Amino acid sequence: MGNCVDTKFDDILLSLGKIAQKHSKAVIDSIMRWRRSQNENVGSEIIRVHTTRSPTTARTIRMHDIPGLLNERKSLASIYIMCRALIAVLQSLPKDALGDVMGYTLEETTFDQFRRPEMKLLHQSGNQRANNELYAILLGHIANFRYGLNQKGSNLSPLRMIGS
Questions:
Q1: Which whole-number Å values give the CA distances from 159 to 60, 137, 151, 155, in the listed order?
Q2: Is residue 47 a part of any domain in this protein?
Q3: Distance, C-alpha 6 to centroid of its chain
Q4: The whole model's pTM is what?
Q5: How far apart, in Å, are the Cα atoms of 54 and each of 8, 22, 43, 59, 60?
Q6: 64 vs 143, residue with greater confidence
Q7: Which of 4, 89, 96, 121 shows its CA 20 to 30 Å from the CA of 21?
Q8: Residue 124 · residue 118 · CB < 8 Å
Q9: Which of 148, 135, 20 is nearest to 95 (CA)?
Q10: Structural domain tally of the chain?
């Protein structure tokens, strides 16, 4: 699910970006706090609903695997929402709006997740791959703030081939 698939979600992200233009630290802190709050396991009521509504699925998946699968889905969904929200916020901010401390914190948190992917899950799950791509996009936006990339007068020189 990317941009323009769910216009209401896109509108919410746009609104979040507008709020962040005046309160960037508060909005980014809120997004990160929300993501941390999503680490709790799925409740027993949700598990019960999933096991009773779909007898076909329950037959193909062992009953004791259902809580783990639901927790994995919840985790993937919350990572997706967090990345999309942070990207929307960073796209709406001027280049000098992200302070050093906030930029460093975002960079470390995001890069830590990006550098330690579970390769088996990346190959098996399109959702894992989508989240990994969102982490990469988010890191690009963070780099624009932290290192002044894509700005005129950047100190980075073009890459050249070794031996040239």
A1: 51, 21, 17, 12
A2: no
A3: 17
A4: 0.78
A5: 29, 46, 17, 9, 10
A6: 143
A7: 4
A8: no
A9: 148
A10: 1
